[in-house]
Amino acid sequence: MSSVDYSEKIPNNVNLSEDRTLQRALEHWQPNYINWWQDMGPDGSQNFDVYLRTAVSVDPQGWAQFGHVKMPDYRWGIFLNPAEKDRKIHFGDHKGEDAWQDVPGEHRANLRRIIVTQGDTEPASVEQQRHLGLTCPSQYDLRNLFQVNVEEGRHLWAMVYLLHKYFGRDGREEAEALLERSSGDQDNPRILGAFNEKTPDWLSYFMFTYFTDRDGKFQLCALAESSFDPLARTTKFMLTEEAHHMFVGESGVSRVIQRTCQVMNEMKTDDPAELRAAGVIDLPTIQRYLNFHFSVTIDLFGADQSSNAATFYSTGLKGRFDEAKRTDDHVLKGHSYKILDVQNGNLVEKEVPMLNALNEVLRDDYIKDSVGGVDRWNKVIDKAGIPFRLTVPHKAFHRSIGTLAGVKVNPKGNPITDHEWNQRVEEWLPTDEDRDFVVSLMGRVVDPGKFANWIAPPVMGINRQPVDFEYVRFN
Ligand SMILES: [Fe+2]
Ligand SMILES: [Fe+2]
After folding, report:
1. Taking a C-beta distance cutoff of 8 angstroms, is the pair 136, 145 a contact?
2. So which residues are the signal peptide here (predicted)?
3. How far apart are CA 73 and CA 150, in angstroms?
4. Where are the domains of the chain?
5. pLDDT band at 1 (very low <50, low <70, confident <90, very high)
């Protein structure tokens, strides 16, 4: 069944009404979720009518319906991709067996941990972004922020459904805990580091949606391969929503660059101080933000050698990115993979069993993918005739997890002394001054079709609406 039943309290395409116990449990969780949204969701926005898309069917054509909605009335629900008939497990030790429609007892703890870790990132990003609406550069951007926020809320629903349906009492407790942890909280923080960082300004936000939502894409792609079929089906649908989040990031950064280049050409200068005085973000500052978000995000893939990663793969819980498109044996025993190691202060390649290096495999796939958008940003700079290139830093730069944690490496990948790091870190990572400057640019622009000075308008509006469409009615 692909169409969504909106007559229910909880919209769904999983015949929820046929499972009264589950329905009641989720209806019990629902008001707690709404309370969380009121407390921790977008600040001061509860009464706005926002031009949002809502899933009406999980078919590739037209799953989205657009209309003005108050966010607390958004129809969050449970949408799974249609089941694939006779789906088989296609990697790991169980390759060739039927995919699981229920959780095998021996994998229960690991699957629960995977689902909770994924689920925890979803409300975390909403919390991280909750004040951004107060300083939006335009109505168009405000609407996109809110769209991303409601969809991250729906991703939380997706994981909570799995916890409630397949993990009994433990699952229900985990679902409650997902609403209790809080991004950046001293006592009860979110599980993963990058999801406790602040997103204090819109440049950070665009970098986050470009880099960190892309981590989401790669994690979801790996889970979409899972032998646990309900997890595979729910993550496949989440991926269709994720694409828009990365678009917001890529186009957002691109428009910041475009505006900066325009002012550079008008003023005939590349002097950061002059450009800042003119109210745009100089390219070296954009590079430092890029370095920060890239390095913090690649840590999310975990340690470069991990016995958990091997277990998750061999038992069929989590595949590789594009597992089905790969031409190896999909079991990987006896295969090896090159990771980076540190020897006498130098970075050297080291061959290790591939199964243990699957976090690194996914990280490397991610890095390849994220470079693409940076190339497109460089085209904007080229087109303006400005001799400057943004680059993705070396993967050993500014790492906190795995073998490379704490090794001092410059963005080009050359090991350096602590002394040199301390002397030059301000060239490579955003300083307090950079952050204060970027924050100082953030003012609220909400007249339809108007944009803050530091960002160019988009080429097109949302859902073929004009750029000056009334995307948000403030009431
Ligand atoms: Fe998400
Ligand atoms: Fe996302």
Report:
1. yes
2. none
3. 10
4. 85-473
5. very low
Yes or no: say if 252 and 205 are a contact pair by the CB < 8 Å rule.
Answer: yes
- CA–CA gap between residue 82 and residue 127 (Å, rounded): 31
Tokens standing for residue 137: 């550069």
Work out the angle at residue 109's Cα, subtended by the Cα atoms of residues 307 and 326, and round it to the nearest 5 degrees. 50
**Ligand 2 center from residue 8 Cα (angstroms):** 26
Span from the CA of 213 to the centroid of ligand 2 (angstroms): 5
Q: How far apart are CA 354 and CA 446, in angstroms?
A: 51
Ligand 2 centre from 401 Cα, in Å? 23
Q: Average pLDDT in the 339-364 region?
A: 96
Nearest ligand (C-alpha, residue 121): 1
Q: Which CATH superfamily is domain 85-473 in?
A: Ribonucleotide Reductase, subunit A (1.10.620.20)
Identify whether the C-beta of residue 158 lies closer than 8 Å to the C-beta of residue 55: no
**Residue 321, Cβ density class (10 Å: 0-12 exposed, 13-18 middle, ≥19 buried):** buried
Q: Using CA atoms, how far apart are residues 346 and 415, in angstroms rounded to an integer?
A: 6
Ligand 1 centroid vs 178 CA: distance in angstroms? 14
In the chain, % of residues over pLDDT 70: 99
The bound ligand whose nearest atom lies closest to the alpha carbon of 212 is 2
Cα 311 to averaged position of ligand 2 atoms, centre (Å): 27
CA of 354 to the centre of ligand 1 (A): 28
Enter the pTM of the model: 0.96
Angle 223-224-227 from CA coordinates, rounded to 5°: 80
CA 127–ligand 1 middle distance (angstroms)? 13
Nearest bound ligand to CA 156?
1
